[in-house]
Write a structure and sequence with these properties.
2 copies of one chain form a homodimer. By secondary structure, the first copy, chain A, is α+β, with helices and mostly antiparallel strands. Helix content of chain A is about 55%, strand content about 15%. The complex binds glutathione (GSH) (2 copies) and FE2/S2 (inorganic) cluster.
């Protein structure tokens, strides 16, 4: 579908993408982690898109298996949610993924 | 107002009360912390109350100054949100507050 193409283009053309909800603290945590690491992610607030928000959220579930937010992509690769992202950060892997993605 | 009385009765008659939203991970964190500490809080899911949910949320803001969820009360006392509750837990104060409240 066209909306599915939009998601695929978005995550391939932007090194860091976060599908988010503006009021959600788990999403805020992920956004401020990237900011702290000097990366400016593309943030898509699903609650600010009217009816397209729920549509995107369902499509993301079909594409990634994940329905929840935050939904994080780095270098076109699906990373996961807040817990997954923090786990990678503590292991030291997140910064490697970020520099690879930004370098592309 | 009558709804305001309901809140005041709820927090005075129940040792631990969490105003919550069922999909919110910060609320889940607080609920599982209390469960881990052997306390069964009274949980009010504001997203499951139809139009009364937003009404309660605005009243809670008027009463406590806090609009966000989770909104936590122990022994009738306003504790705060997820971060505040975790802070008290790490300081060792949360368990003291809980035993006092449960003992009442
Ligand atoms: N463990 C996941 C939890 C994700 C989660 O439960 N997200 C909630 C918001 S905090 C959610 O998307 N709920 C459904 C919704 O808001 O539509 C993570 O770390 O990201
Ligand atoms: N620092 C606060 C953050 C609270 C917060 O921002 N809560 C969000 C959900 S995670 C909220 O209530 N947003 C407005 C809403 O859902 O109505 C805490 O630790 O509880
Ligand atoms: S909505 Fe509360 S942490 Fe996501």
């Amino acid at each position: 579908s066209r909306l599915e193409e939009t998601i695929k283009n978005t995550v391939s053309q932007n090194p860091v993408v976060v599908y988010s909800k503006s009021w959600c603290s788990y999403c805020s945590e992920v956004k401020s982690l990237f900011k702290k690491l000097g990366t400016q992610p593309l943030v898509i607030e699903l609650d600010e898109l009217g009816p397209q928000g729920p549509q995107l959220q369902k499509l993301l579930e079909r594409i990634t298996g994940q329905y929840t937010v935050p939904n994080v992509f780095i270098g076109g690769q699906h990373i996961g949610g807040c817990t997954d992202t923090l786990k990678l950060y503590r292991k030291g892997d997140l910064e490697t993924l970020l520099s690879d993605a930004v370098a592309k």
